[in-house]
């Protein structure tokens, strides 16, 4: 059995994470997990920020349980989660490696103006995409910890 790969997509909203995740899903025959798609499927496009934030962790936890099983079965997995914190990336890397998986971090970087331009251009009805304000994006950019060169190798 070939060694499965966990692809962790790192970046802020508007950086192209889901587009990249879909490409990897197709090219690498990987099981893709995009939380916003699950949240909108379960709760609709009109879910408010407090509800969305309350359900994100349980959705990601469930996705990770399924992802771990897929990795143990030899299936490649793409986590389209953003992974803003170094500590979070380290945790998932270690768990995946314990399961025998190789880990690849894909970092998508763009300037805040480019991110906002892309987010603003999204159709309101965009399936699997939740509404984001400029203020939220700027706040999140301050919290984001870009991956180190060591993490990317």
Automatic annotation (TrEMBL):
Q: Name one Pfam family in it.
A: AAA_33
Q: Which InterPro entries match?
A: P-loop_NTPase
Source organism, top-level taxon? Bacteria
Q: Which PANTHER family match?
A: OS07G0160300 PROTEIN
Q: What is this protein called?
A: Kinase
- Native organism is Candidatus Doudnabacteria bacterium RIFCSPHIGHO2_12_FULL_48_16
């Amino acid at each position: 059995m070939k060694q499965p790969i966990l692809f962790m997509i790192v970046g802020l909203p508007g950086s192209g994470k889901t587009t990249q995740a879909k490409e990897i899903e197709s090219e690498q025959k990987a099981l893709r997990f995009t939380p916003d798609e699950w949240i909108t499927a379960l709760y609709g496009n009109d879910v408010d920020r407090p509800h969305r934030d309350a359900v994100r962790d349980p959705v990601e936890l469930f996705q990770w349980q399924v992802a771990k099983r897929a990795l143990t079965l030899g299936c490649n997995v793409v986590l389209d989660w953003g992974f803003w914190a170094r500590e979070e990336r380290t945790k998932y890397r270690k768990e995946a490696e314990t399961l025998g998986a190789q880990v690849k971090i894909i970092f998508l970087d763009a300037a805040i103006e480019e991110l906002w331009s892309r987010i603003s251009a999204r159709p309101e009805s965009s399936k699997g995409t939740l509404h984001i304000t400029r203020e939220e994006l700027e706040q999140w950019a301050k919290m984001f910890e870009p991956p180190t060169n060591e993490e990317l190798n």
